[in-house]
Amino acid sequence: MTQSRMGALDALELAIKVVLDGAGVTFFRNPATSVDANRDGIVIMTDGIPGEPDVLLSPRRYCWEHQVEFEITAMGEGRNAVVEAIIARFEPVLALDHTLGGAVDYAAIDSAPDINEFPIEGAETERSAVLRVMLSYVTASGAG
Question: Which of 9, 21, 71, 133 could pair with 44 as two cysteines, CB 3.0-4.6 Å apart?
Answer without folding.
Answer: 71
